[in-house]
# Entry
Amino acid sequence: MNKLVWKKVSSFLILILVILISTKFSSAMGFGQNEQAQLTYKPNLETSYSYTIIPTSPHTLDYSIGLRGDLAQYISVTPTILKEISPNQNPSIIASIKLPSELPAEILPGGHTVFIHVEENLSSITADGIGAKSAVDILIRILVLYPTKYLGSTLNIANINENEDITAEITIANYGEEIINAVKGIIEIYDSNNTLVKTLNTNTKIFLESNSNSKLIAKGNSIGLKPGDYSAKAFINWDENNSVSETKFRIGSLDIAINSFTKEMELDTINEVSINIESLWNDLLKDVYAIISVDEESIKTPTVDLEPWQKQFLKGYLNTEGLTLGEHPITITVFYGEEEITTKTGTINIIEQKGKLIQEAPAPVKNELAGIQIMMYILSAMVFVLIAFNVFLMMKNKKKD
# Structure
């Protein structure tokens, strides 16, 4: 390789190193607000909201501010740019809203969102570094009412345990300009085979005012319903209209499912045995562990706590020294405290060692710059070698001259 090529290669690597050293990483900025910007359209409505911007960059920067959304033309922000904001400053911006006397035809009834976009202007960094932009979107929600009656609804049924009471809650909102005289609902509950197993009736809400909300409640027992997954449909009648809301919920049992376990181990060594378990209970299960038995060998896993419906792994280590190649019976028993919850049996296959050393996995790197730092070290070493080699070539050529 001639001197010209070496010079180009070394210059390129030095450039990469300089870029990596100068790179800065920024986390997302934040903002604070006194109240959530959520309003309903009224002709000629004027109001304003104040926000505090919370920078996260270590640099003094400018911040550009923009708006987007189908009602953005009726909102202005001051200032439109934040100049020379230092890391310890928390500048304020004000969003002024001035709605028209009549909305254009293309603005349909329903919810509309306008975003105030605040973004770092990295060109304001003189020569201090190259970085990824950080930005934040601030939401302003504007509801445009329907000219007549319009009901919005959401059905919710919380998970329960077997034989506990079912409480169904329908959140209703009148998004129309007219009053809804009466609202009531019938809730049908279906099992996992889509078979109707229970019907609940809600209370009746009288006079749901425009732009107001309320709740319909239905209660019943779950006696006779088996643990498992259920779906529900709420058929809601409001004046001469009907609508449907759906949801899913679970009925739990004091049980833990064993979904899977290690199927293969190596002979004459210590093997990790992993068990995937799942809580089928709607409350916290503390001190859950398993006893794993293969032939005459038994081990106990460390304990874990299971949140409602949580999946987790139990892990233990089994020494296969003295066992034989081939399939062996395995028994896994899961305990909750001192109470035996479930048992699963199966087979596990013992095979010859694969000749791979089992090494402890390195702990995850928590520093987000660790990978870059390693690359910098490597490139630094390469640049040093190239510089030394260039010096060597120069001295050699000088001697020839």
